[in-house]
Amino acid sequence: MPVFETSPNVNIHYQVDDFTDPWRETETVLLLHGNAESGLAWYGWIPHLARAFRVVRPDIRGHGASTPMPRDFAWTLDIIIEDLVGLMDRLGIARFHLVGAKLGATVARAFAARRAQRVKTLTLLGAPPPFRKDAAARVPAWTEEFEREGLENWARRGQSARLGGGFPPQGADWWTHYMARMPVSSQIGWISTIACADIRADIPKIACPTLVITTEHSGLSSVEETRAWQQTIAGSRLLVLPGDSYHVAVSDAERCTQATRDFIEAAADELVIQGDKTCGAPSARGGRG
Question: Do residues 125 and 248 make contact, with C-beta atoms less than 8 angstroms apart?
């Protein structure tokens, strides 16, 4: 199990998937999962993405096989970003393509704005609004439920909106039990801070090529609400897929993977045309070293 010690007594579990040709210099993609998930959430992406790119999928601290965090841990986006920077430094990857789903897209937007020199492209899937006005008011009720019952009932109630009406029932049941494994102490801290984070000031600072993917009837944010912040990112693109899920990275995994791959490859070609100085350096491209 690959593990990176980001700080004393805090380990970040991660997986690297690379099925590219061994003689070819390879670009790297960093995948950031959402709330109460882990790197496993990207299972539908790996067969399609890892043939073309080196893929890094960490379990964000407190999630999955990474170290659980105490309830009173002082979560901030900058702490999570520093964990990820440290991991990519450990792997010798200076610049990479960043992909985030759900609250992973909140982390990804802040990362791209605050560490612009590290991010080549940004892809956001099922991203919540930059500031969720009603989130803080719901934290006390969430906290009380998590302490009393754990996460299973909460996860089950939200699966229809999360995964969409067309997702198979057995799949929704699997996702419920998967999300319920999140440590309660981690979830209480995460949901009361990262889910309530205000990244409105970060959005206009994102300068890399950006693709935003949502669905026509997402229960998390309407197309109009998504377009409103997406258009403040210079040169960004919005892809709207049919459906009603907001976890579009899972409900439409193959289509989202192909769109992301096409977007990254087109952006990489454009960087070469423009003479991006980092494109020839293995450390910048995530070469095999």
Answer: yes
Q: Which residues does 141 contact at the CB level (< 8 Å), separation at least 6? A: none
Q: Is the entire prediction scored with pTM above 0.70?
A: yes
As for how many domains the chain has, the answer is 1
Look at phi and psi of residue 208 and say left if phi exceeds 0, alpha if psi is from -120 to 50, else beta. Answer: beta
| Residue 286 falls inside a structural domain | no
129 lies in a domain?
A: yes
In a domain, 229, yes or no: yes
User: What does the buried/exposed string (b/e) look like for 144-181 if buried means 16 or more CB atoms within 10 Å of the residue's CB?
Assistant: eebeeebbeebbbebbebbbbeebeeeebeebbebbbe
Q: Return the residue matching tokens 């790996």.
A: 46
Domain membership of residue 197 (yes or no) is yes
Chain segment 222-256, per-residue pLDDT in tens: 999 999 999 999 999 999 999 999 999 999 999 99
Q: 91: which DSSP letter?
A: T
**CATH code for position 144:** 3.40.50.1820
pLDDT at 283: 37
- How would you class 117 by CB atoms within 10 Å of its CB: exposed for 0-12, middle for 13-18, buried for 19 or more? exposed
